[in-house]
Amino acid sequence: MRVALFLTCVNDTLYPNTGRAVVKLLSRLGVEVDFPMAQTCCGQAHYNTGYRHEAEPLALKFSDVFREYDAIVTPSGSCGAMVRELYPRMGERARAEGRGEAVATALAPVVPKTYELTEFLVDVVGVTDVGAYYPRRVTYHPTCHGLRSLGLGDRPARLLRAVEGLELVELPGAEECCGFGGTFALKNPDVSAAMGVDKVRNAESTGAETLCAADNSCLMHIAGTMARLHVGMRPVHIAEILASTKGDPLV
Amino acid sequence: MSGTFVGMPSFPEAAHAAVGNKTLRGNLRHATHTIRAKRAKAVAEVSDWAQLREAGRQIKDHTLRHLDRYLVQLEDAVTAAGGTVHWAADADEANRIVTGLVKATGESEVVKVKSMATQEIGLNEALEAEGIRAYETDLAELIVQLGKDRPSHILVPAIHRNRGEIRDIFRSEMGEWGRPAPDGLTDTPAELAEAARLHLREKFLRAKVGISGANFMVAETGTLVVVESEGNGRMCLTLPETLISVVGIEKIVPTWRDLEVFLQTLPRSSTAERMNPYTSMWTGTTDAGTADGPRAFHLVLLDNGRTDTLADQVGRQALRCIRCSACLNVCPVYERAGGHAYGSVYPGPIGAILSPQLRGTESEIDASLPYASSLCGACYEVCPVAIDIPEVLVHLRERVVEGGTVTRAGNKVVLKPAKGHAAERAAMRAARWVFGHPGALRSGQRLASRSRRFLPRTLPGPGRAWSASRDLPAVPAEPFRDWWQRTHGGQEAR
Q: Measured at the alpha carbon of residue B476, what is the angle toward residues B473 and B479, in degrees to the nearest 5?
């Protein structure tokens, strides 16, 4: 099975440790993963801000880069949802604009084989105990696109519960959006920040040391809010927890 | 605060004040979280909820696809039952028709059933201009009217008010409109309800003309349906001699059997009730002496942008809406910005896709509404007719930034891109170019990594929107792709 890592532009640029953690984790589980160097961005920010026609070439490029792989794994719920939910919609819209099947046909191959990381682990690799060690009290924030667009369900929680030493505590209001929302964070900064503060206060109330999520874009907003509020919790991507072992712990 | 939404600032600007208003935030948080939890429980009780939701979606889509046929069928049935049907292309026409009908009765006051359509067209203001007083009889609408306020929620228009504020409004305003509030009125729900009951009763008994909207119109029999919790609507529908109903054309269902679906999904989605308390249904007029009901009945069918909305392949799903408010109650943006920020009688997620379609995207507020969402999808999840609100929001964002062909008053019109997006458009194009060239992306990443110690912690210009409330992430010493190439020897791409 040829597996490609679609890291996402945000992770590549700002969160390389998440990428390294995915590589380490998958290697440990016997999955050899490739990082196609031609990859850049799925086009989500363009699409969701109303620039579908700018997003289209990025989607077509994504398909070019990844179509030959058997599975495409991404440590981002929202970028995974972009491919799985919105690429087919881009095809439909192009068709409605009288541009025929070209876009739909070009994007179709990558749609069913794109997996968010926790989905790939549970559904494709078939593991919930990945042999990780992380002796901390952790609370998990299910990010919206992972939760509602991809339907990740309890997969992340099952993976976390199997981590040795990890105590998973429930986050109050877990299913409420953190307020990031891509360009929403810039276009509606007051509401976005208010949502972020409420999310952080809820996380703080759990007494957990770590706030875990499966999307670094949301974590960037939450972490930035935590820092501003001087909340001493640590925001960590789930890949980094799952990659952590006794011999090679996340520090 | 004026009774209309004309000249509203953009959503972010209006939301800025609301976010900082602690009382408002507290009122909204308490109310939305309470109803949110109740709805979830009421919906979870129904084992075939998903099928009911799908049935509701299909009934609405079918009806909208054949709206021309069903409207004519409805008109014939209403006429046969003794009613008169009027067609109103827009708000002005509807207001002219209703005002004329009231004047023809010689009356100078009317009692109103809670109605979104009459709010949408500004009927009360139009009647006032002709010397006719319209009394809102729904408790929450009464609070809004007495407080010279604007509604901020579809179902609970005074959701932004707490009990203490309501007591103060009753004490100071009731006397100007009729029977004053009882002496020593406290803020207990029972006392407030009793004060409203006494105040409204004299109006019910005096009124000769009632004005309503409708939740549903059944095409096969010409029956109108109003669903309410207080019984005040029932009073207005049965006591006055003349009843005028203003209803949006999308409120039609083909048969009585279709009501079975919506009378299950609407109460659970809106008030979290298993069954609706007062469901009034009437068909045409009632003969004097035989039963309670109007001797004269007029139905004003309102378009006001609905046919134009129907012409849009993606946006038309907004017309499925049954005004339950579940999307408002679950929306994290609504909860913090409040209903007034949406600049329309339709606030919340549904308002953000309805207003820019019914009114167009040209005004500042309407162009900003499609962006009043983090696209979290909670609204779509709870919608009992499966309106994919995030999909329509993104579609309308596209209309704002790209312009394009839309239908206005039945004609195809080409819209220009909205103003104020030039810098954003340039940035999006530049980003697209960089992402089209991995080599350029890599150069940018390396530049950021090398200069990372000199990068500011806060941003100037538009970036301040981020850094005013959040720290920026630290730029790593090396982007992932450099690490990968160093350790795995990947081929550099251009």
A: 120
